[in-house]
Design goal:
alpha+beta, Beta-Lactamase, six-stranded antiparallel beta sheet, 30% strand
């Protein structure tokens, strides 16, 4: 595996995300995706199949990622090409904890854990701070759980990026 720090020269700092309820979503895009998820929710409040939401989010497919829950970790199943700009290695099939950027691994893990433990959508606010200010962002994200019988088996995520410079 190539050395991410040397290949890209901008790994992010280990900053934990803020975790909020979805009532505070700012992004119209994330609100729209949340609305589609809510239409699919079953009586226990959890849609069972992520594939059902894909027609609703098709214009944003490059920015989506879907992970499967694996004990205390998560495995990337689908990663849109715009999710990790500048990262030239595929992550499909890899654990989130194996992400080459430790800051991203930390934030994704904490946000997905919150969605898994609550079996409810989660809003995240993260700062991606690097050695190169041109790659620094404020990120608002939405994490949507899917599963059966209130047991989360998959989590779909979507993020919006606002440059900090």
């Amino acid at each position: 595996m190539p050395d991410y720090a040397l290949a890209h020269a901008y790994p992010s700092r280990l900053l934990p995300p803020e975790i909020h309820g979805v009532d505070s979503l700012e992004s119209p895009l994330l609100k729209e995706v949340l609305g589609a998820w809510r239409l699919l929710a079953l009586d226990d409040g959890l849609p069972d199949k992520p594939s059902a939401i894909l027609p609703h989010v098709k214009p944003h497919i490059k920015r989506l990622h879907l992970s499967e829950v694996e004990d205390a970790d998560f495995r990337f199943k689908i990663v849109g090409e715009a999710v990790f700009p500048g990262l030239d290695e595929p992550l499909n099939g890899r654990l989130v904890s194996q992400h080459p950027d430790p800051g991203i691994a930390l934030r994704f893990s904490q946000l997905m854990t919150a969605a898994r433990e609550t079996a409810a959508p989660v809003r995240g606010i993260s700062l991606r701070l690097t050695e190169m200010r041109s790659h620094d962002y404020r990120i608002e994200s939405l994490w949507l759980p899917f599963g059966e019988d209130a047991r989360v088996t998959q989590i779909l995520g979507l993020s919006t990026f606002m440059p900090l410079n």
